[in-house]
User: Fold this.
Amino acid sequence: MSNALLALHWICRSVLAGVFIYSGYVKARATLQFAVAITGYRLIPDALVFPIAEYFPWVEIALGLLILSGWQIRYVAGAAGALLLFFIALLSTTYARGIEAECGCFGFGEPISPLTLVRDGLFLLPALFLVFEKRLRAGVTPQPTAAA
Amino acid sequence: MALIAVCVLLWCTPQTFSETKSGAVLGGSADCPVRIEVWSDFECPACRELYLGTMRRIVQEYSSKGKVCVVYYEFPLSMHKYSKEAARYTEAAARLNPDYLLPLYDALFIDQARWSQDGSLEATVSKVVPKKDLQQLKKLMHDPSIDSAIAREVQIGNNMGVKSTPTSFIYSGGKHQKAEGTISYIVMKQYIDRELK
Assistant:
């Protein structure tokens, strides 16, 4: 069982790190297009759009690299999960307001839709696993019994 | 580490672009450190927003100081009934007298709501082009080379991956950024200021 959990740990870490590094990379290469996508949400003041477009992708890349390194993984995965929840909330409210905007998650030209929201929601799973992994291990690891 | 190296390499590799010599230069010159090329359709509302809200101000504030060259290319979309005719007017006007170009762009985008409904392009054009030149302009519009020029710009756009309007390419420091859709003036200004540093 612990081997299975270890394998799951590496899968979750790789997937989550890959998602954030790739997402950050795509946005860092197309700063202006990312700025256009942010403007489309009609939530962020214009003066903040470009600074966010310029620096935020590097936050994502840094987060992905931290996840990959394994350093303080519970807390870093927790931060990644919180960020994902923020994205989902942002995209959901934009969609609910009837605004046709780009998702901007892994490239451009993809509009926000229930499918993109579900997809982003699924990425929460590896983050949640990494946050609660210690408890899961404690739950499956047999406890030593007292000697008779 | 390999993943990081690949990312850095791809990030550092400059994206190449093809030099084009056609298009309507609305401001600036080839010497400007920043060049903005826009593929646009006169009947497209987003193009109107980009031109009137952003590019017009960029031309006034940056092109006049030799910092940004703004070039517009025709990309009339088939779903817009009068956009090709509008493109013919501007191509012909540029050949007749380049001084007509910017006022004509202003007039066509400002009056877009009206002429896109009733096709009254000539009424808009006549606000800019005096009567003495209007007949010559209308004759020039039907010269086959005008349609060829428009078709050439559309082909260049297709080759560069333009799929919708407006699509902008901003060139500076040997690299370029592509952006589809309307870019607000503040965002464009911040981007240009960063590139000019």
About this structure: The interface with chain B takes residues 21, 25, 28-33, 35-36, 39-40, 46-47, 49-51, 53-54, 61, 65, 68, 108-109 of chain A (CB under 8 Å). Chain A is about 75% helix and 0% strand.
